[in-house]
Amino acid sequence: MSLTLDKEYLKGFVSSEDLKLIAKDIEKAHEALEKKTGKGSEFTGWTDLPSRIEDSFVAELEKLGKDVRQNSDCLVSIGIGGSYLGIRATMEFLRGKDGFPVYYAGHNMSVDYHYKLFNCLKDKRVTVVVISKSGTTTEPALAFRLAKQFLKGKYSGEELKKRIICVTDAKKGALRKIADKNGYRSFVIPDDVGGRFSILTPVGLVPLAIAGVDIRALVQGARDGQKEYSNADLEKNIAYQYAGLRYLLYKKGKLIEVSSSFYDNMSFVLEWWKQLYGESEAKGGQGIFPASLIMSTDLHSMGQLMQDGVRNLFETFLDIERSEHSVVIPKEDEDLDGFNIVSDKDLDYVNKQAYKATAAAHFEGGVPNMTLRLMKADEYHLGKLYYFYERAVAISGYLLGVNPFDQPGVEAYKKKMFALLGKA
Ligand code: PA5
Questions:
Q1: 110 and 206 housed in the same domain
Q2: Fewest beta carbons less than 10 Å away: which of 208, 222, 224, 412?
Q3: Whose CA is nearest to atom 7 of ligand 1?
Q4: Domain CATH number, residue 184
């Protein structure tokens, strides 16, 4: 099994018997998703997206990636939210695949960030991918203006044109107009896939292919995830078990889910997860608050809270079975720090003991926890994990009775900001 769910430390909090009691509700949620009869069904194109991605499209993107890497020193990926987090999550998870540098813009409006970014790009050959489903989001729109100004200072004519790639809606939005009017190469984000579910559309695939990520393996992982986690049989489907268990925990007053990993390359995967779960579930005064920790770093800052604070949380560890490299702890002649007990052992051995100890201690401290375990940190497993999380949140959203595919709350600040800016 490339992805497993360990439920040992839920004992006494929720049981497989409890899960059976809501099996019918999970089945109903599954049916609603499959038959597209549930809330927000017009945005469920992601459910069978992996199996609909054509190999020829993957090949086209691989070719684009090769061409860009030949004529550029780096990529600037402009986007925010669903048009940013999955790309960064994948890059950080794979630790900057093949060393092709990817810079991000338009995910904040910090003047110093953008000043320093364009300053450091001055002497580099740059290609820009601008991603916005709506094509009207403030942060990427402004960053794109800055990027165009920067590129125009270096290139003109066809050379300028080929250094700008747009990923946006087929018809709607300002970015579509800009792309068409200027003849920039563009890719379409399907109408029926919302921002936070879009990592396997051109939103993720275009910049990742340029960065040299093995998108073929990423897509294959998601395809296998689609098969495995669309299974109506709750006993066989760990995505549905995860959805059901966290729903039961929530109903028992565990209002916060802390996702923790002892692998720092999971940091942005968890940021992506937070958007997916926070935006999908939190509607009408409901929803689990998604939080994340990177261990063992955060054990030295948040460990006290996890062990001994308000008992309104549960924890999901995201573990990696096999690390890519080996780092052996050296033996010292004088064992002054007392750590010769682990000399000649791999550092990951100690990391794993820290994880086991934490899971046990938090359980004893009143924090029920599960572990979602990936066999390896590669593109295939990440593709599968993305699909796992998407499928599970759709089910848990339906269990909560909300529309998991809209985000009306995101608009509130925008309206007030536009009013302050005097924008229509
Ligand atoms: O989930 C969402 O839809 C949002 O968080 C978007 O991803 C984010 O606002 C970016 O939107 P867009 O791609 O339209 O620029």
A1: yes
A2: 412
A3: 82
A4: 3.40.50.10490
